[in-house]
């Protein structure tokens, strides 16, 4: 055998062979140092590998049990495979066919191999791919097939290698499309195990944000289409991933925020509170007024932080694989038809958990894409009952499916069923609280559902003793204070502030014609320009006395009228600022502004008086060079008119270039934060979110159960009991504690030794005499149990 393989004593001695065995690790190190000198040893081991592979395949074909029982055969084959994988880069011509032979061995004889040999061959293939002797396209389908075998270690190894390799690839690598095609084609197969592994791979890569975004939208579409797979397990896995994807993103964001809390939280904090408000809350007024101002300041800061947190969440966690659907209407209709098919109307053969997941996915799709699927609301009426299992999640799906594009007539039966089933006097407090919260969320999206009589009836629950019910009713009142106060009773409308809000009509949409909140930037620029003009700008000809004298009286009246109109505009702006100031500081702000206005009026009146005096004293004008003076007067009049027009008009972005820089957007953000701070300090309540924000945000079923006290289980009660016993001393009797006590007597013992007052002694003696007398009288008549015959 040795002669046929070409062994020579010199080669064996050089290769490090001691007696009969060849030391592969030593030979491997020597080959790496001198590849040309050990080519004969490489050919020897390569021939041994081929011979052992042929022997293994023959024994596996004949189903000999000696292969599995004899571990030396598998061990030698695995060692030679790993050795050749290590030295393949040094002999690319001699071992050109080795990678394909090793892959064919794993593909054809994987089931016949023992677990250790499978792992050795898989590690050898991974090593070859890392050394660029194999490409990932050749290994991807093989490793996906290998994961279907029941070997846990091999499945874990192959799966982690696929994910890590694709993660290390460049984003613009053109190989992504070919790999996606391989995995998606395996997902579309009817074999459940292969489709399951392909789905797990796609979900993991989407979760790791590798195949994420518009560039890889076919991955998200394939996961969504897996909801219609023939296998129920694949369908449930796809539905669960679509529902839990946003929770996974929230957990990742929370972990990242915990890690980078100290570094990133400070620059991203945009809470802006006026310094004057802080100063007044801490230094001005009595102690009680200071407390009120400080409490209002804290409430304002909390509301601002809550809004900023909600806006940041809406920007980060609004992504869902459902966003990439090419035809979301068809997807929702197809899933609803699968949900509705069954023996009875409204019920399917699927489990209730599966039906609930399908309802949630349909509702999420309707909310994200603002679809019109009117039969879905009729289907939900079968489950919108207080005794149904997981009814809160069903109601959350109903809320998620409501948006401003749905006609109120289609949702009205479901809405009235929730009102009649949950909110009545004989219902449980938990059901009433959930019903009020659901009604509030549905009316937030479709205000036309509510009528005046129904709202006034529901508002009466604000006087209930249960906190959950009263909080739900008050939140409903607060909502309609913002969107339609005319439906409320007069005492529930609150303070009459600004203009009365009117609900949007069906199909009414706010269309932005410019960058949102760009008017704040324009106002700030206008204010700064007006300040500079007032301080620095001088009108042409203002120093020339003759030109001033030659201005006609009509022009002066026009200028005064324009100045009066400007003053009126400034006064209106001051009034608007007063409306958005702190309620507790309104009087002080008004006093300050009144003082400013008085000063302004005084200055205006003084100017007018001086002007009138000059007119009264009116000296004769000297006409020297009349034509030149008339020309200069004409130019000054035009300059005055130009200045008035420039001051009255707001600066528009179109006049310049219409392009905003990053500094402009940053300034708009700061101005918006200041405006929100003023509004939060001025009044309570909340701002109604936009319909796009409501549709993107996922409805949390836990928020529909706010302030509800759930009944604790026995395990939770035992945990509370054990937690209360931690700091307590071990139980002992009183006599034992008294005996262990060191020191004098206690105050209670000393009280017993004190001499009682004389009146107390006499009353105690009288009581003892009376008790003895009663006892003695009762002892004679009491039956002692004597028998009748004695």
From TrEMBL:
It is found in: Nucleus, Nucleolus. Residues 715-730 have a biased composition (Basic and acidic residues). Residues 574-724 form the SDA1 middle domain. Residues 83-464 form the SDA1 N-terminal domain. Residues 311-323 have a biased composition (Polar residues). Residues 251-265, 526-602 have a biased composition (Acidic residues). InterPro entries: ARM-type_fold, Sda1, SDA1_C, SDA1_MD, SDA1_N. Residues 764-776 have a biased composition (Basic residues). One of its GO terms (biological process) is ribosomal large subunit biogenesis. It comes from the Eukaryota. One of its GO terms (cellular component) is nucleolus. Residues 743-788 form the SDA1 C-terminal domain. Residues 251-270, 282-324, 522-624, 715-790 are annotated as: Disordered. SUPFAM superfamilies: ARM repeat. Keywords: Nucleus, Protein transport, Ribosome biogenesis, Transport. Belongs to the SDA1 family. Required for 60S pre-ribosomal subunits export to the cytoplasm. This is Protein SDA1. It comes from Brassica napus (Rape). The gene is BnaC08g40520D.
